[in-house]
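Notebook p. 47: complex prediction with zinc ion.
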Amino acid sequence: MKLPVIRVAVDLPLPRLFDYSVAAADESDVGRCALVPFGSGEKLGIIVAVLASSSHNKLKAATTILRELPPLPADWLALTDFCSRYYQHPLGEVMASALPPAMRRGKLPAARQKRAAAAEVDAEPVLPTLLAEQAAAVATVAASFGRYAAFLLHGVTGSGKTEVYLRLIAQNLARGRQSLMLVPEIALTPQLEGRVASRFPRARVVSAHSGMAAVARSRAFMAALSGEADIVLGTRLAVFTPLPRLGLIVIDEEHDASFKQQEGLRYSARDVAIWRAHQLELPVVLGSATPSLETFHHADSGRYRLLELPRRAVASAEMPVVRCIDTRREKLQDGFSAALLAALAARLERQEQSLIFLNRRGYAPVLACPACGWVSRCRRCAANLVLHKIDRRLRCHHCGWDEAVPGHCPDCGNLDVHPFGRGTQRLEEFLGARFPGTRILRVDRDSANTPRKWQSLLDTIHDGGADILIGTQMLAKGHDFPRLTLVGVVGADAALFAADFRAPERLFSQLMQVGGRSGRAALAGEVLIQTEHPSHPLYRALMAHDYRHFALAQLAERRAAGFPPFSHQALLSAEAKQLEAALDFLKRAAAAARQILPAGVSLYDPVPMRLYRVMALERGQLLVESPSRPALQGLLAPWLERLYQLKTPRDLRWRIDVDPLEF
Ligand code: ADP
Ligand code: ZN
Ligand code: ZN
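Predicted complex, C-alpha cells below:
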C-alpha cells in the first residue's frame, strides 16, 4: 500500500528537506510540527508539504505529527522560507530558531486557563494632547493601515515617539488588529510593558524575549498564534511571532545593533520586519533619535517616509548643551580634565546627578611589565586580558578566560607590573578618592550582570541614591534620570579613527543617546566631551544637535568609498585550529565563486579576521560585495551549494553572514 509522504524541514545544519512516510496526512498538516527519527534519536521538524504518495517505499516513517498544536500559518512558512533563502541558512534551523525553545524540543505548553473575566477596569487613562508633529505623524501612519508603507519616525529622546506608537497601537486595536512592537533590550521590556499594559487595560499584551521562562514564552507564542494576543512586545526574536491578525509593526530604537543576530541565523530583525510588512501589506514604523544610516538613506531617497519630531514633548525639557573640552595641552589627572572635575564638583554642590560615560569596563585594558615588555594576553584569543581590580582577576572579554592577577611578571619576575589605560573601575576608584563621601555607582556588564542587579541599580539611580554614575553604553538607552544634569564623556576619540567604517555612526548615536539622558525634566543638562579633536565634524554635529548634517556627511563618505548602504555585502568566515586551514578553505571558496561570479559582484582576498583568534580557534574571512542586491543574491545561492560540496578538514567550520554589521 502506498502511504502519504510528508516533506519536513528538520532542525539540522543541512540545506535540504527530508521525506517521511506517515499513516495519514493531508494538506491541513502543512505547517504542523512532526517528530521524525534521526540517527539514533528523534528530531523536531516542520511539515512544509504533503505529497500524495511515495513512489519508493524506502522512506522512514515519521514518529508523530503533533496535531494538538495548530499548524503554523502559510505566511509564517513563507517568512521563514524567505529568511532561509536570503540569509543562506538551512530552512529547518531557521524554523527551529523562530520557535520558542520548549516547542523546539517538541514540548507544548499546557492549555492555559481561561482568563478570568476582565476585572473592573479603572477609568480610561488621561492622555496628553498630542503636539502638532505627533498628531501629524499618527495621522500619516494611520492613513496607511491596510497597505504597505515604511516610516522613519525621527525624533530626539523625549520627543514623544513612544506616545506616537501608543496612539497607533490604539487605532490598530480598534480595527481589531494585532500590533507587534520590537525594542532592543530585554531590560527595557518590563518598563515598556507597564506603560503599554496601563494604557490598554482591556487588551491582551504579551512579551517575547529570550530572558523569559520557557513556559511563559511558549504561552506568549501560542497566544499570538491563536490570535488571542493583541499586542506583542519583544526583542529581535519576536519578529518571527506568528500573528494572524497583524496590522502594525513598530521598531523602537531601530538603529540598535541588537536587532542583528550575530550567531546562527544572522538575521536583521529590522529588515525582516520590513519584509513582513510588505508581505502582509501593513505599515511599519521605525523610530530613532539617531537612525541607522541605511534607514536614513531610505528616508532621504524617498523609499521610506520621514516623520520628524523636532523638539522635546515636555515643554520645560530643553536639549542639553554639548561642549568639547580640548585636552591637547592639559596634563590630565587620571584621565580627567580640570574642567570636567570642576563641573562634577558643581553638580555635587547642587545635589544633582552626573554621569561619566566610558565604553570600557574593567579597571585597565591591560597589565604590563615595564622591565621586559610582557603584557597580559589571552592564551586562547588574539586579545589582551583586562584587569579587574575589584576581584583581582585578569579576564578575556572575548572568551571569558579568567585568571588571578600575577604577583610578579610571569616572564622576568619583576614585582612591579602596571595597569595601562583605564576602564570604568579605575574611574570609580579615582573619583571615590577625589570626592570622598560621594555616592558613586558603576553601571556596566560586571556590576549589572543579572537582570535583578540591573534593576536594583536602576532603582537606586531613580531613588536619588547616587551622585555620580559611571557607565558604559548600558546607561545610554531608554532610561529617564530626572536629577541628571551633567554627562561627561571620556575616551571617545578612539572611535573617530577606528578601522571599522561603522564606528563613527555608533559613536555619534551613543553620545547622542547618553547626552539625551540629561536634562529631561526641569533641570537643564550639559554634556562635556573630553577630546583631542575638538573641531572634528562628528563632535561639531553633536554640539549642534544636527543628526541630519552628520548623516549626510557620513553617507557622502560611504558613497565615495562604496560602503553600505551604497553596496551590499556578504561575509564568508571560516575557523579552524590553524589559520592556514581556514584561509585555505576560503581560497578554495573564492575559486568556486570566481567560476560563477555575476557581473558587478566583487570578491576580495581571504584575510585573517581582525580578532583572528578566539577560544583557541583561528579565523579568516572573505568579503563579497556588490552595488546590486539582486546580483549579490544571484551569487550566493549557487555559491553556497558549491561550498557545501567542498571537502573540509574535520575541525573547520564556516558560515555566511549576509549584510554583516561586524567584521
Ligand atoms: P520618546 O519615546 O521619544 O523618548 P516619549 O513618548 O517617552 O518620548 O515622551 C517623553 C515624555 O514626554 C514622556 O514622559 C511622555 O509622557 C511625555 N509626552 C509625550 N507626548 C506628550 C505630549 N503631547 N504632551 C505632554 N507630554 C508628552
Ligand atoms: Zn617582565
Ligand atoms: Zn580569550
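Notes: Residues 369, 371-372, 374, 409, 411-412, 414 surround zinc ion (ligand 2) (CB under 6 Å). The chain has a mean pLDDT of 92.
Next step: compare against the earlier run before touching the bench.
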